[in-house]
Each structure stands twice: as C-alpha cells, then as structure tokens.
C-alpha cells in the first residue's frame, strides 16, 4: 500500500482563472453556464454518436448491444464522467496538472491522456476531410453518388432507379459504394500499398485544420461562442434525417433489427469490449478533455447535476441516431432483397454510405446533402477543437511562463496542428483507410482506455479516498453526491470488475485486426497498433518510476504527509468557496 502513496507535493493556493504573474495571460473562465454545457456537449456528442454507435450496433448483433452498453454506462460512464469534471473544477487545472495536485504518483494518467488526445487529433479529423469532400460534391446538378454515369463507375454498378434489385448479380454494387471506395478513397486492395497522397483529400484536410486552428487560437473565449452553433445545428439535421428515414419503405424492418437482440452475441467478449470502449470514447472519459473543460468553471458550479444532464443527452443522441441509421438500412435491404446484416459493409464508411443514400431519395437532394454533411462536419469539428483546447491548456498549465506570454499559445497550437496534419497525410492515400482503422482500433480506444479507467479508480478510490473526493464535491456544490458514486470510484468495486473482466476476455480471444473489405492486418500493422497503444499507457509506469527516483526521503516518510497535504487542499478550497 505504501507504494501507492503520492510522493511529491505541489502548491495548493492559487487564484482561479487569473494569471499568477501579472505578465502572463489570464487562464480564463466560461462566460456563462450555457457555454460550459454546450462545450462539454460538443466534446462528448460527436461522430461517436451518429457514426460509431450505429456501426457498433450493426457489427454486434443489433439491440443486444444495449445490454453491455447500459451496464458500462451506469457502472463506469456516469461515475467517471463526474470524477473527471469535478476534478478539473476543484483544482482549476487541466488533465496533467490536476493529477499532479491530487495524486502526483499517478500524474502519468494526465500525460497518457494527452498522448491519446494527440493521437485522436491525427486520425479523427480525417473523417471531417471525407465529409468536406462529400460537401463539395453536393453542389453538382446531380449528386455523383446517385447514378452510375461517372468515370469511376464499373460495369457492376446499378443505379437507384433500377427495379427488381433481388434479381441482380451478387457482384452488383451501388453508385454510393463505388463513389466512396473508388472516387473518395481510391481504396487499394492491400494495406501494404499506400501509394501517393490524394491531393484533393489533402486539401480538404488542410482546410479543416485551418478552421480548427482559428476556433481554438483564442482559447475558451472563442470556443465558448463557436459552440452555440456547432453544438445545436446537428440536432436539427438529425431530426430531419430521422423523419425522412422512418417514412421510407422497409424502415420498420431496420428498426426491428436495431432493437431485437441476438442473445448469442452476449457470449462474444468483443461485444463487451466494444460497449465499454464506446462509453469511454463517446463520453470523452480518460482523455483529459472533461477535466480541462471543468477547470474553466466557477468553483461553486453544480457539476453534479450537469453530469446527469449531459450523460442523458449523450446516450439519448446515440439511440436516436441509431433509429435514423437503421431506418435507412432497412430500406436499402428491402430494395436489394437481402438481409439487413448484409446490406452494407461494416466499417467507418457507414455514415458515408447510409447518409448519402438517404439524401438521394429526398426532394431537393443537393440541399439535404449540404445540410447532412454540414451536420457531420460540425459534430466532428467541435469535438476536435475542444480536444485541441484540452491539449494546449494542459501544456500551458505545465509551462505557464513559457506558453502564456505574448503569442506562445498561438505558436504552440500552430505547431501541434502542423505536425498532426503531416501525419494525417498518410490517411489520405489509397491505403489510408487501413492506417485510419489501425489508429482507431489501437490509439485511443480499447485496452488503453480500459487501463486508464482502472488507474483513475485506484488513484481516487484508494489513494486520495473516495470519501475525501466526495467531500470536495460537497465543498463546491453544497451537498454530497449519491453514495453509489463512492462505491463505484474505488477500483476494488464495480469499475474494476467490469473493466478487468472485459480486458481479460479480449486477451483470451484476441485475433488479428480485420480491416476494410475483409483485409487481415499484417504483422507490421499489428506491431504499429500496439506501439500506438504503448506510446500512451507506458507513460503511467515511466512517470511513477521517475517520481520515485527523484523524490527525497523514503516511502514511509511520504506516507505520513498525504493526510497533511489533503487537509491543506481542503482548507484552501473551502476558504475559496466561502468567498
């Protein structure tokens, strides 16, 4: 137990939201509660809801996916969401600084989460480049994915205006799939063949990065205003797509497939793995972004009620998006005369196949296509620039005298955007989709997120004490959170059981990653994936070893200081709360 105690102390007293040195720029705070709620909603409600969640339902047997999803939501999602938000609000620091103050030995949690954010910034924005490509293509007199008269179409292409689709050859393809694979991606047949950069996609990627930069460069002041648009507009478009989808013939079959569980899939550990990682991914847990956003709150903000509101909004959006997607899949299955499970190829292109197919059926399809892909762009953009803000602010908290002077923040942001853009060019090649899937599977989802969640529970539940953290929340909001949170935070309880069980099953039944078009990832791709995973999670033990080697005194001596440090922190923040 002595090995788990914090081994360094940090200064506790500070003025929230203000520069500690008069020559430094202010850290900033939210101008209103609405800005905080919209910013967090922008971070957690994104492509994970309208692309990843329906895709995982489709992949894992439809409605049976709700069983492990709801279990992870109650036991892990909501408690960890509150933990990270309250941690940032209590300390007024980003992901790294907050853990250094609360539990310095586990400050590697902060560094690991920032490395994951960096990885996600590289590949997540590529989806936005695809969406921007579709958006530009939507301004043509006839949508290019609605017919087979394009130069990239093959003889197997069959347009949407053909009838008796069930009589077609099994090799027949639709124009929407050929547009996605042959025109947008120029997809290669092998992961070993990357070839040259697709400069049209590269230009789209550059434009999206430029927009992200100017949304973030002024920090919380600019983000707080942008999210009023980016966090609300997608809901209007999602509602339009849902209304149109359920009115299509065959939509009921798709919705039934979405809701009717295939119980045999519950025995597959991958279903549980996907459910757990979906909770962590869509809620932004273990990525440090919630801590950073919470750090801009006033000390007395009721983050407890905010947690329930935002979690309910997030999961509700995922479910509604699933209805919108599966209603369209049901129609497409009826049109082709096949089972819903075979109607579209699994993969990240689900939103770029089902959504274009839906808008092509609407009156004024160009108008709806523009609206739909603007929705996808805004959903992804706000998640992207909030993640960037979390990363930049965490670095600024570590080196305030360097970053928060003159234009230090803007220069750092420019360097991060430039490096991520250059790495992202690998994903706009003919083999780029395979690289994207490797990043998506290994870098910030799966085993790494599960491991960080266990470590967070250990740090708060065992070392800092769940009761003490609950009292910290009471000091901010005036009342204690439900006792179930104090039961879920300690690692020996629910979180650890679910997470470790899922992680163990995933190792027992591990198999090579299957990429687009059924391509099995070669050995070098798997090695690359695990390298991405280790680049973040390895920072946990490395930081702990570094701390132990550079802290004077014995572990027994540092043990007696933990209670003194905790009392000082609680006293300092209690005085601040009373002001």
Secondary structure elements and their pairing?
Layout: H1 33-44, H2 47-59, H3 66-91, H4 95-102, H5 108-137, H6 175-184, H7 199-216, H8 220-230, H9 233-246, H10 251-259, H11 269-282, H12 289-294, H13 303-336, H14 351-359, H15 365-398, H16 400-403, H17 408-424, H18 432-442, H19 447-477, H20 483-488, H21 494-508, H22 523-537, H23 539-550, H24 555-578
Helix pairs in contact: 1-8, 1-13, 1-15, 2-11, 2-13, 3-11, 3-13, 3-19, 4-5, 5-7, 5-15, 5-17, 5-22, 5-23, 7-15, 7-17, 8-15, 9-13, 9-15, 10-13, 11-21, 13-14, 18-22, 19-21, 19-22, 19-24
| Residue share in β-strands | under 5%
Structural class: mainly alpha
Per CATH, the class reads Mainly Alpha
Instruction: Label the overall shape.
Output: globular
- Cα Rg: 24 Å
Number of extended strands = 0
- Largest beta sheet, briefly? none
* C-alpha end-to-end distance: 37 Å
Mean pLDDT across residues = 81
Number of helices: 24
Uncertain residue ranges: 1-19, 162-167
Briefly note the CATH topology name: Amino acid/polyamine transporter I
> Do you know the CATH architecture?
Up-down Bundle
Give the helices and strands as they follow along the chain.
HHHHHHHHHHHHHHHHHHHHHHHH
Estimated helix fraction: 55-70%
Number of domains: 1
């Amino acid at each position: 137990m002595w090995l788990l105690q914090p081994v360094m102390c940090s200064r506790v007293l500070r003025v929230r939201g203000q520069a500690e040195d008069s020559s430094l720029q202010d850290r900033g705070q939210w101008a209103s509660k609405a800005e905080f709620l919209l910013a967090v909603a922008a971070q957690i409600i994104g492509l994970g809801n309208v692309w990843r969640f329906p895709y995982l339902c489709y992949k894992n047997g439809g409605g049976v996916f709700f069983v492990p999803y709801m279990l992870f939501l109650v036991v892990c999602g909501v408690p960890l969401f509150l933990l990270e938000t309250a941690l940032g609000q209590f300390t007024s620091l980003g992901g790294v600084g907050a853990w250094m103050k609360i539990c310095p030995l586990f400050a590697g949690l902060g560094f690991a989460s920032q490395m994951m954010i960096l990885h996600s910034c590289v590949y997540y924005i590529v989806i936005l480049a695809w969406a921007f490509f579709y958006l530009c293509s939507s301004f043509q007199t006839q949508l290019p994915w609605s017919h087979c008269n394009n130069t990239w179409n093959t003889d197997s292409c069959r347009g949407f205006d053909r009838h008796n689709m069930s009589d077609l050859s099994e090799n027949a393809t639709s124009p929407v799939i050929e547009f996605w694979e042959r025109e947008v991606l120029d997809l290669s047949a092998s992961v070993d063949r990357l070839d040259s950069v697709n400069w049209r996609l590269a230009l789209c990627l550059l434009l999206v990065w430029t927009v992200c930069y100017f949304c973030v460069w002024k920090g919380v002041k600019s983000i707080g205003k942008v999210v009023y648009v980016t966090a609300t507009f997608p809901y209007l478009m999602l509602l339009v797509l849902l209304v149109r989808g359920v009115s299509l013939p065959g939509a009921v079959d798709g919705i039934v497939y979405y809701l009717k569980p295939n119980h045999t899939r519950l025995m597959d550990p991958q279903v549980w793995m996907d459910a757990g990682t979906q909770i962590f991914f869509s809620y932004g847990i273990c990525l440090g972004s919630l801590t950073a956003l919470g750090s801009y709150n006033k000390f007395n903000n009721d983050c407890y009620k905010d947690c329930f509101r935002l979690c309910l909004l997030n999961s509700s959006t995922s479910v509604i998006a699933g209805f919108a997607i599966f209603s369209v899949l049901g129609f497409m299955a009826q049109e082709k005369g096949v089972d819903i499970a075979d109607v579209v190829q699994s993969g990240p292109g689900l939103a770029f196949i089902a959504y274009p197919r839906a808008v092509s059926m609407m009156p004024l399809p160009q108008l709806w296509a523009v609206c739909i892909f603007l929705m996808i762009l805004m959903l992804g953009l706000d998640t992207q620039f909030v993640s960037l803000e979390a990363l930049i602010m965490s670095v600024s908290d570590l080196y305030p005298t360097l970053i928060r002077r003159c234009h230090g923040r803007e220069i750092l942001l420019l360097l991060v955007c430039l490096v991520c853009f250059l790495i992202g060019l690998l994903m706009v090649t003919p083999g780029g989709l395979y690289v994207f899937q490797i990043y998506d599977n290994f870098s910030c989802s799966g085993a790494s997120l599960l491991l960080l969640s266990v470590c967070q529970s250990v740090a708060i539940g065992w070392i800092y004490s769940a009761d003490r953290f609950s009292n910290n929340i009471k000091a901010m909001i005036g009342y204690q959170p439900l006792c179930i949170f104090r039961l879920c935070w300690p690692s020996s309880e629910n979180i650890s059981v679910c997470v470790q069980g899922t992680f163990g099953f995933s190792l027992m039944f591990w198999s090579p990653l299957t990429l687009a078009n059924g391509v099995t990832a070669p050995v070098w791709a798997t090695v690359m994936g695990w390298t991405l995973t280790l680049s973040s999670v390895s920072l946990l033990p490395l930081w702990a070893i570094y701390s132990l080697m550079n802290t004077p005194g014995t572990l027994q001596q540092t043990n007696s200081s933990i209670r003194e440090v905790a009392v000082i922190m609680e006293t300092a923040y209690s005085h601040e709360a009373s002001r």
